[in-house]
Design a protein that fits this description.
about 400 residues, alpha+beta, Heat Shock Protein 90, 5-stranded antiparallel beta sheet, 5-stranded mixed beta sheet, 12 strands, about 50% helix
Length: about 400
Amino acid sequence: MTEITRVSLENEMDIVIAHKRMISVAQFFYLSLSTQSTIATSVAEISRVVIDRTDSGWLSIGMEKKGAKYMLTGRISYPPGIDISSSEEGLKYAQVLVPEFSQEKESDVTTICVAIGVPRSLKITDTRILEAVEFFRVVQPATPYEKLKVRNYLLNQQAIEKEEALKHSRLLDEKKNEFISVASHELKTPLTSIMAFTKLALNAGTTEASGKVLRYLEKIDHQVRKLHVLIEQLLDISKIESGKLDYHMQDTDWNGYMTDLMPILEHLVPTHQLFWAPCPAAVMIRMDGLRIEQVLTNLVSNAAKYSDPNTRIDINCSSDSDGLTICVRDEGIGISKKSINRLFDKYFREEAVADKYSGFGMGLYISSGIVREHRGSIWAEKNEDVGSSFYFTLPVR
């Protein structure tokens, strides 16, 4: 059978739609009024019986060829497990009306089929049937209820398509993260060896190598360290997205923690003036010290990258009953308004700076993931005078 149109059978109002739709199809092929009424009434009676049992039935109207004769056919289907006997009054009445009646049971569906012959004088062709399919594909709903039903169906289809697209996107993300994780692990082994031998060569080179060789070794060491940071970032991203980034939480005095960390941060940005203001009162934080160091290292490095040498970078903090707020403030190029809400997106980089400054847009994304796992929040603001400020919060013990 070539399906021309379909109607879902959910409630009593669909019986009217089924009746009208069958009449419309019969009219399209110029069947007589009596034939229209006969097949439409038969379909309506069967639909009524099915709707009494389930709201998951459907009517498929089409044209099929038996030998040299075409038959206008209605197939009313419903899920298995629903017992509808051919002795039902509605089905018995339908059998009387039409010359072709059958009930077919399969594993996944049961179908009641009614059909009536089309006179050869109407000269039905495959082309005419395809015209009917196209006509009823775009035909407008006949009633407000049918309009609402069509709209709900389209919305449901869109939701299904979006869900499938989302599943596909998640699968691709999982495959990508798996690849990044495996590739990063494989790269770490030879990179560790290169770093170790470069360090040995630098130590030995102070007495055994020329100044030019030492400069070459220093450049190799610098680039290898950059590659090591990149691999670590890729690993962190895959762990964050798979929920496998480990945290070792400890109760930590913030001022004491920062006192120990400042020499490391100062060594990180020797070309800038780095200042830290301790919190007025002692603040205890439960956190992973290495991961929060990763956040601060990234924020301070970015502040130095996007500001001129010898400018200030300030690390300030404040606390209240809600938590501790840390601010890293610079005197750099600032942030555009259109980019400020996207800074923490994975791989995002501002177009204005992407060509001038190196980077992959991973550091802030990783930092936001670490802060979220500490039940804090992170954001950025453009300073009124110059530069920008990055804030993150941590809950107070």
